[in-house]
Design a protein that fits this description.
Blueprint (H helix, E strand, L loop, with lengths): L9 E4 L15 H14 L3 E5 L5 H12 L6 E7 L11 H8 L4 E7 L2 H7 L4 H17 L3 E7 L1 H7 L1 H14 L1 E8 L6 H14 L6 E5 L6 H11 L3 E4 L13 H11 L13 H11 L17 E2 L2 H9 L17 E2 L7 H10 L9 H15 L8 H11 L8 E13 L4 E13 L2 E9 L2 H13 L10 E9 L10 E8 L4 E8 L2 H21 L6
Parallel strand pairs: 1-2, 1-8, 2-3, 3-4, 4-5, 5-6, 6-7, 7-8, 9-10
Antiparallel strand pairs: 11-12, 12-13, 14-15, 15-16
Helix pairs in contact: 1-2, 1-11, 5-7, 6-7, 8-9, 12-13, 14-15, 16-17
The structure holds acetyl coenzyme *A and pyruvic acid.
Length: 536
């Protein structure tokens, strides 16, 4: 691995170590391996895999990677310096890090005198010995060492001479990178710039600095950028900014800022376009909902809602987009809502395969209907299938697949041994292909019973309905001060083997709102079968 190009930056991912220190995030060995392989595929050069010796999972993770190594990334094992007054060769943690079998190791040590005397309860001299012995021992065992200077910025502010001594000690012992950590995450960008500049002046020429920032002041990305601008050449962070407390610097923001805006080489050119996919896959693996509004990779990062914005973006995307979304593998979306203008309607219609222009009276009619319904409580931005049906209706293209004449729902609350359990029956009356049908079904609640009765009535005519599944049901009270007569909005998400779609219903009667959303959900699924259309 060469490190001589002036525009080369080394991205160091710590999702599998610092990322897993986030409250609520827990991963299995299989999850860790999957994430490591995804980061490797993305072209990340250094992947910190964990702290072998701290827990059996991390020990096993490194063993498994020895069996099936990554393709291009260096997998790095992490550990602290030796404990005070113990020989490095006799510290079990250092034995564990050697057993991990990686070429590179990262050792964190104390830079802040307060941490030495209060945290480690040892002397400033012994801390220097701990740093020196640990790194020298690992070097003599054939490892290349990255030194993470924990609490660097706070330490430097309190006692710059001692903090610099710790760095010099690490360099003298053989560390190849000195990573300045803003462990408490409270430093601001101008302080980072100044202190990184000071360090570069104080340390020998060719010292390689890295930066590791936390987001407690919401400046982790800005801080890392400031350090790079001063001369740091390694950037540590995590995918989606996962990490202890408020998180670490988010690599999904840092990488595009560094590569697309500042011109550094971080990832191979063809890989940065896979950033959005990597972000979403990793959020799926760690079982945390993706942040839809995340910069660069969020679903809304290039979503345009205001009519003025959409009108301009349609003419030239530069008007409201800071980069082209496909550069990071994301895509532009047009959102439909009461804030829309004709441009939103026309752009959205195009995604459904419908060509309209501003002169078409149907476009104006659709916009007017949209605004009317939104003022009654409908919300189409999350229910694009209902909006597609609304457009088809206005254009006289909504096929009448069935006609519902009415429905009845009956609920029983049966007292069991410890609690009540509910059982519901629904009856529906409808006409399909000229035939009148009366059908009934049961469910564990009124909406499930209604959905079952409708499917039972329709399945002989439309067998594909058996593949549809109701996957989500969301209820929102719109005017909570009206108590039990409040208006309710129901969103229903359905899916088949290929697609998901969402529909909406609004009423003061929750059953009626659910009925409208469920019926449109079934209708839209049938339309998807007959016409290939796009939906949310
Ligand atoms: C800034 C960072 O994010 S650093 C990484 C933090 N990550 C973690 O802590 C997750 C993994 N940690 C663990 O599994 C455990 O804390 C272990 C296995 C490391 C240690 O567990 P224990 O031996 O039970 O110690 P405990 O967690 O209570 O305390 C930490 C010990 O490490 C010592 N320590 C802290 N930093 C260092 C350091 N840089 N070098 C050497 N020792 C250190 C503390 O002084 C304390 O020592 P003590 O046991 O003599 O009081
Ligand atoms: C090493 C590390 O994770 C920190 O100082 O924040």
């Amino acid at each position: 691995m060469t490190t001589d190009s002036s525009h080369q930056l080394w991205i160091y991912d710590t999702t599998l170590r610092d990322g897993t220190q986030r409250e609520g995030l827990s991963v299995s060995i299989e999850d860790k391996l999957r994430i490591a392989r995804e980061l490797d595929r993305l072209g990340i050069p250094f992947i910190e895999g964990g702290w072998p010796g701290a827990n059996p999972k991390d020990v096993q993770f490194f063993w498994q990677l020895q069996e099936e190594p990554l393709t291009q990334a260096e997998i790095v094992a992490f550990c602290s310096t030796r404990r005070p007054h113990v020989k490095a060769s006799e510290d079990p943690m250092l034995q564990a890090i050697l057993a991990a079998g990686t070429r590179w190791v990262t050792i964190f040590g104390k830079s802040w005198d307060l941490h030495v005397t209060e945290g480690l309860k040892t002397s400033l001299e012994e801390n220097l010995e701990m740093i020196s012995d640990t790194i020298a021992y690992l070097r003599s065992s054939g490892r290349r060492v990255i030194y993470d200077a924990e609490h660097w910025f706070d330490g430097y502010k309190q006692n710059p001479n001692y903090a610099l001594q710790t760095l010099q000690t690490a360099t003298d012992a053989g560390a190849e990178w000195l990573v300045l950590c803003d462990t408490n995450g409270g430093t601001l960008p101008h302080e980072i710039s100044q202190i990184v500049g000071d360090v570069l002046k104080a340390m020998p020429l060719h010292t390689q600095l890295g930066i590791h920032t936390h987001n407690d002041a919401d400046t982790a990305v800005a801080n890392a950028l400031a350090a790079v601008r001063e001369g740091a050449s390694m950037v540590q962070g995590t995918i989606n900014g996962y990490g202890e407390r408020c998180g670490n610097a988010n690599l999904c923001s840092l990488i595009p800022n560094l590569q697309l805006k500042l011109g550094y080489n971080c990832l191979p050119k063809d890989r940065i376009t896979q950033l959005t996919q990597a972000s979403r896959l990793i959020s799926e693996v760690v079982n945390l909902a993706p942040d839809e509004h995340a910069a660069f990779v969020g679903r809304s990062a290039f979503a345009h809602k205001g009519g003025i914005h959409v009108s301009a973006v349609e003419r030239n995307p530069l008007t409201y987009e800071h980069i082209q979304p496909d550069k990071v593998g994301n895509s532009r979306r047009i959102v439909i809502s009461e804030q829309a203008g004709l441009s939103n309607v026309i752009a959205k219609a195009r995604t459904f395969g419908i060509e309209l222009d501003k002169q078409n009276p149907a476009a104006k009619q659709i916009l007017q209907r949209l605004k009317e319904l939104e003022s009654q409580g409908y919300q189409f931005e999350a229910a694009e299938a209902s909006f597609d049906l609304l457009m088809r209706e206005a254009l006289g293209k909504r096929q009448q697949l069935f006609t519902i004449h009415g429905f009845q729902v009956h609920c029983d609350l049966v007292q069991g041994r410890v609690s009540y359990c509910s059982n519901a029956q629904a009856t529906v009356k409808l006409t399909v292909n000229g035939q009148n049908i009366l059908e009934a079904a049961e469910g564990n609640g009124p909406v499930a019973a209604l959905d079952a009765a409708l499917r039972k009535a329709l399945v002989n005519f439309y067998p594909q309905i058996a593949e549809f599944e109701l996957t989500d049901y969301k209820v929102r009270i719109l005017d909570e001060y009206s108590g039990t007569s409040a208006k309710t909005r129901v969103l229903v998400e359905c899916r088949n083997n290929f697609q998901r779609w969402t529909t909406v219903g609004v009423s003061t009667n929750i059953l009626e709102a659910s009925y409208h959303a469920v019926v449109e959900g079934l209708e839209y699924g049938l339309l998807l079968h007959s016409t290939p259309v796009l939906s949310n």
